[in-house]
Amino acid sequence: MNVSKWMIPIAAGLGLIGAYQAYGWPGVAFAVTALVMWALMHFNRLVHVLKRAADRPVGYVGSAVMLNAKLKTGVNLMHVVALTKSLGEQRSPQGEEPELYRWTDGTNSHVTCRFDRGRLTEWTLVRPPTDERPQDGS
What we know:
The structure is a single chain. This protein is of the alpha+beta class. 47% of the residues lie in helices and 17% in strands. It has helices at residues 4-23, 25-54, 64-70, 77-84, and strands at 89-90, 99-104, 110-116, 119-126. It has a 4-stranded antiparallel beta sheet, covered by helices on one side. α1 (4-23) runs antiparallel to α2 (25-54) and α2 crosses α4 (77-84).
């Protein structure tokens, strides 16, 4: 059971009850205002991340190796989109768990991320083989 999913509504409810007991209806008005401000800040961040991602091709990242180094288990998809500044190319069927997304860079290296219930559980970096030929043309 995901306890963190229920913590915010429970804390908001307890805050509203506490505000009413301490200050009456003006306290409830202040608590509601604080909750709306908190929700607007999160919505603003979501819109900002998606606005930056709209300017880039789907599934593109500047460096797959750097993305691989920055990823951490347990972050959500929005955090990864904020890191890559691009929406991932969906590799799994729509609406099925686990969700798989891929980001590819200019060298055809790519990172495939697996999200279970919206959280990053694992990822793999694939780098194409490099040519062993000298670069001077001989």
